[in-house]
Amino acid sequence: MRWLIGLGLFCAFFSWGTVEIKVGGYPFAPFVEKRSDGGWQGLTLDLIAALNAGQSDFRFIFVPTSSANRYEALQLGRFDMMLFEDINWGWSSERIMVSPPFLYDGERYVALSNSTRDQRLFDRIDKLRLIGVKGYHYGFADFEGDPVILQRRYDILLVKDNVSIIKALLLERGDVGIITQAYLLRYLAHHPELKDRLLISQRWDQKYQLRALLHPSSRLSLPMLQRYLSELEQKGELARLWQAYGLNAMAMR
């Protein structure tokens, strides 16, 4: 019995000594995706698991939010951190702590392919019917993310996620979709029958410089996070995760 009491005290002490860090995320494939059972998956969830496995001072947990509400939620401290954000997406570095970029990707223009279309199609984006994701920021619009402004200025069709862009293209509800490259490549790997049906631009709409953002009062500091990420990089864990999602790493600094 004494050893059970001792074990209980040890576990209680261990749990008290572990700081909980809430990581916000919203549907943004391949970083955060909602499963059919209502749960969440994606690179953000996998990196959270790797961070938890690599140390015992903090316990990282995922907290879902929406693309539109993430700014206020982080500033109000509803979660401590966000992963895989670009500072151009409406963030003010004066109110948050911003890490150096540690990963990059971007978005490509995608259209239905036919015998009359080639790369010149994408030279006149402003003349085409565009399809994007509601709440996202796009390079062609100088990173404007307000859905009302985007629809008024550009007559863009806004859908809920990347796969909805592809479905809308196939239904010819627009001329050109703007899709995250890593998601597009993974989608086509699972749906090879669509490769010949889609024309993918050689030019980017934007290139991401993806960073971690921290609330100023978070008990996790940027140097500590950088140390944990560097340790995962040295073990080869980051390279394994990036490769699994078709992404390219920038050297950790």
Which labels suit this protein?
single chain; ABC transporter substrate-binding protein; ten-stranded mixed sheet; Solute-binding_3/MltF_N; D-Maltodextrin-Binding Protein, domain 2; 32% helix; two-stranded antiparallel sheet; 253 residues; alpha/beta
Summarize the structure.
This is ABC transporter substrate-binding protein. The protein has 253 residues and is α/β, with parallel strands linked by helices. It contains 8 helices and 12 strands.
Topology at a glance:
Elements: H1 2-17, E1 19-25, E2 33-34, E3 40-41, H2 43-54, E4 58-64, H3 70-75, E5 81-85, E6 97-98, E7 103-112, E8 130-133, H4 147-154, E9 157-159, H5 162-170, E10 176-180, H6 181-190, E11 198-214, H7 222-234, H8 237-244, E12 248-249
Parallel strand pairs: 1-4, 1-5, 8-9, 8-10
Antiparallel strand pairs: 2-3, 5-11, 6-11, 7-10, 7-11, 7-12
Helix pairs in contact: 2-8
Could you explain the architecture of this structure?
With 253 residues, this protein is α/β, with parallel strands linked by helices. The protein folds into two domains: 19-104 and 208-250, D-Maltodextrin-Binding Protein, domain 2, CATH 3.40.190.10; 106-207, D-Maltodextrin-Binding Protein, domain 2. The chain has helices spanning 2-17, 43-54, 70-75, 147-154, 162-170, 181-190, 222-234, 237-244, and strands at 19-25, 33-34, 40-41, 58-64, 81-85, 97-98, 103-112, 130-133, 157-159, 176-180, 198-214, 248-249. Strands 1, 4, 5, 6, 7, 8, 9, 10, 11 and 12 form a ten-stranded mixed β-sheet that branches. A two-stranded antiparallel sheet has the order 2-3. The radius of gyration is 21 Å and the shape is globular. The termini are far apart. The model is unreliable at 3-7 (pLDDT under 50). Pfam families: SBP_bac_3. It comes from Aeromonas diversa CDC 2478-85. This is ABC transporter substrate-binding protein.
